[in-house]
């Protein structure tokens, strides 16, 4: 809640009533600054707490329309069981930005690859419900293949043309943020319309 | 309201223009034809490409075709207690959503609730290859790929034909109160800076040549507390609504004039530039309208000094934007070429030659 104290008090009362009407078992209001910080510590130390549960975790950043939260969380549980890796969900429910944390152990053979595959499936689930592969952290290299699913060939070409407007010689982080069409072709994610393979001239491996 | 998906027809027109090497002039409701440079090209009417596609009040998102009347969108939102928080000027009953986004103009609530650019979540458009491309989406946060949707805001149709647009919407304030104070221009500018620093539920501050007007929005208790602190004369709800509407639509007496009207954008605390004429100050000091006979060069130079920008907004001489630096001009041209390599869309509307 923000605004001046009268606004915050009014909004708090409203929020409390909504929560109780929705079946909240208990609604606590921080009475002091120390208590307020204690409430937030619960949220702010989740990532480090999860680090105690598992030697490694892989954090995702997909964002979805809020109405699909239950469906997507259900889907993540299913994928978690399918891949045999636990997933903890810490996120901004208010704006639909999910941070599923995939728990794995990099010292075990194949665990990292399984974690990455599971993460990729979660992002596909986010795209399928009208969401995006990244809400706030962006695309560098690690999510670049998922860009081939979220965007079609024409969009990717438009992104490359726009990048060239700022960087005509391709000096700035080439290969990052926007995948090249050959990369998407190799990844096998270019959309195929009417059975026609886009860019048949591109070499595929 | 008539609903129609004209995407394919519009695409055919764009492909034909590419083939015939002709340029197109994109026209929505034609309510903002005065804004931007005057051009002559084959008209591409988009008003029939109309209709609200999704509106989910609980998601705070609306998606509509570019030709949808702005009034229809606002009526639909108002029925659910919501609004376009950037308070878009209509400048006529025919205003469309596409024109609103392409013009990129926002009203008095802009410094406090965000500009049109801030609420554009996604667009589908036709680029200069005739490709139908989709960027962004209907989610609040999205950083996949470059922010192409927001690049369309204020581009005046030079970067493509907008087809569908998704916007973030907000709940209407529980209550609003407008306070008026008799003040001089200098006093009003000082008041804007002072009140802007305080934790007040402000949703508009303007000086109309005679009075400083401040609008408060929020919970009743919050407004009551601020009113006590501020004083001033309380406008009746109907007078307040009429006043802010007259500011938004430029029906206020200040704007009824034959003198050229300039739109000056600058940091809110900027000292009043030394230009002759009369002023109307909005956006808590960040937007200043100037009625003046000063020549363009003088005004552009004055704005360069304060790192602002000017536009001759309404004048018999037509609209003219602040010239770009050579570096920015090159970048703008490159961006234009990236979207419209054949030079089809609204050539010359924003700047001469492209």
Report the span from N to C terminus of chain A: 53 Å
Which term fits the overall shape of chain A? globular
Can you tell me the CATH class of the largest domain in chain B? Alpha Beta
Name the average pLDDT of chain A.
91
Instruction: Indicate the multimeric state.
Output: heterodimer
Q: Report the strand count of chain B.
A: 18
Largest sheet data of chain B: 5 strands, antiparallel
What series of H and E elements makes up the topology of chain A? HHHEHEEHHHH
Unreliable segments of chain B (pLDDT under 50, ≥5 consecutive)?
none
Structural class of chain A: mainly alpha
Radius of gyration of chain B, rounded? 21 Å
First-last Cα distance of chain B: 36 Å
Summing up helix and strand content along with how strands pair, one would put the structural category of chain B as alpha+beta
Order of helices and strands of chain B: HEEEEHEHHHEEHEEEHEEHEHEEEHEEH
Total individual domains of chain B: 3
Structural summary, described in words:
The complex is a heterodimer of chains A (205) and B (354). By secondary structure, chain A is mainly alpha-helical. Chain A contains 8 helices and 3 strands. Chain A folds into 2 domains: 31-138, Alpha-Beta Plaits; 139-205, no CATH class. Chain B has 354 residues and is α+β, with helices and mostly antiparallel strands. Chain B has helices at residues 7-20, 70-78, 97-103, 110-113, 116-119, 148-151, 185-197, 220-230, 237-248, 296-305, 326-339, and strands spanning 24-27, 42-45, 52-56, 61-65, 82-83, 120-126, 132-136, 161-168, 170-171, 175-182, 202-207, 211-218, 233-234, 261-265, 278-282, 287-291, 309-314, 320-321. Chain B is globular and about 65 Å long. Chain B folds into 3 domains: 7-171, 2-Layer Sandwich (Uridine Diphospho-n-acetylenolpyruvylglucosamine Reductase, domain 3); 175-248, Alpha-Beta Plaits; 257-321. Chains A and B meet through helix 1 and helix 7 of A and strand 7, helix 8 and helix 11 of B.
């Amino acid at each position: 809640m923000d605004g001046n104290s009268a606004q915050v008090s009014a909004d708090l009362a409203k929020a409390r009533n909504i929560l109780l009407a929705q079946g909240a078992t208990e609604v606590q209001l921080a009475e002091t600054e120390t208590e307020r910080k204690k409430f937030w510590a619960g949220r702010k130390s989740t990532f480090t707490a999860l680090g105690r549960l598992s030697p490694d975790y892989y954090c995702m950043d997909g964002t979805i329309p809020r109405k699909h939260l239950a469906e997507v969380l259900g889907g993540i549980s299913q994928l978690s069981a399918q891949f045999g890796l636990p997933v903890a969900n810490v996120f901004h429910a208010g704006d639909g930005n999910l941070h599923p944390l995939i728990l794995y152990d990099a010292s075990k053979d194949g665990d990292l690859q399984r974690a990455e595959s599971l993460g990729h499936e979660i992002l596909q689930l986010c795209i399928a419900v009208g969401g995006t592969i990244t809400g706030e952290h962006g695309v560098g290299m690690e999510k670049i293949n998922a860009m081939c699913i979220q965007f079609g060939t024409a969009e990717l070409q438009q992104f490359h043309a726009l990048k060239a407007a700022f960087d005509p010689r391709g000096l700035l982080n080439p290969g990052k943020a926007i995948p090249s069409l050959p990369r998407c072709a190799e990844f096998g994610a270019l959309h195929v319309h009417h059975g026609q393979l886009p860019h048949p001239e591109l070499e595929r491996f | 309201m008539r609903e129609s998906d004209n995407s394919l027809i519009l695409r055919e027109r764009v492909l034909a223009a590419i083939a015939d090497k002709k340029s197109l002039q994109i026209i929505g409701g034609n309510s903002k034809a005065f804004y931007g440079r005057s051009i002559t090209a084959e008209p591409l009417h988009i008003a029939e490409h109309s209709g609200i596609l999704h509106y989910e009040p609980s998601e705070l998102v609306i998606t509509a075709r570019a030709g949808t009347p702005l009034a229809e969108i606002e009526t639909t939102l108002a029925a659910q207690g919501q609004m376009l928080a950037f308070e878009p000027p209509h400048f006529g009953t025919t205003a469309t959503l596409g024109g609103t986004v392409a013009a990129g103009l926002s009203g008095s609530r802009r410094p406090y609730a965000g500009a049109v650019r801030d609420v554009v979540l996604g667009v589908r458009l036709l680029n200069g290859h005739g490709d139908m491309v989709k960027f962004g989406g209907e989610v609040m946060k999205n950083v996949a790929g470059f922010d192409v949707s927001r690049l369309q805001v204020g581009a005046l149709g030079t970067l493509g034909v907008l087809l569908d647009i998704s916007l973030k919407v907000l709940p209407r304030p529980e209550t609003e109160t407008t306070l008026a104070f008799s003040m001089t221009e200098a006093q009003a500018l000082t008041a804007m800076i002072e009140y802007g620093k305080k934790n007040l539920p402000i949703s508009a501050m303007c000086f109309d040549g005679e009075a400083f007007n401040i609008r408060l929005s929020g919970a009743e208790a919050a407004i009551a507390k601020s009113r006590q602190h501020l004083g001033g004369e309380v406008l009746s709800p109907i007078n307040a609504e009429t006043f802010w509407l007259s500011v938004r639509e430029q029906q206020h007496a200040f704007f009824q004039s034959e003198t050229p009207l300039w739109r000056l954008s600058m940091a809110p605390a900027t000292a009043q530039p030394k230009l002759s004429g009369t002023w109307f100050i909005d956006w808590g000091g960040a937007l200043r309208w100037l009625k003046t006979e000063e020549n363009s060069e003088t005004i552009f130079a004055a704005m360069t000094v304060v790192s602002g920008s000017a536009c001759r907004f309404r004048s018999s001489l037509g609209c003219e934007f602040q010239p770009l630096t050579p570096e920015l001009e090159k970048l703008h041209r490159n961006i234009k070429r990236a979207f419209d390599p054949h030079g089809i869309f609204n050539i010359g509307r924003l700047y001469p030659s492209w």
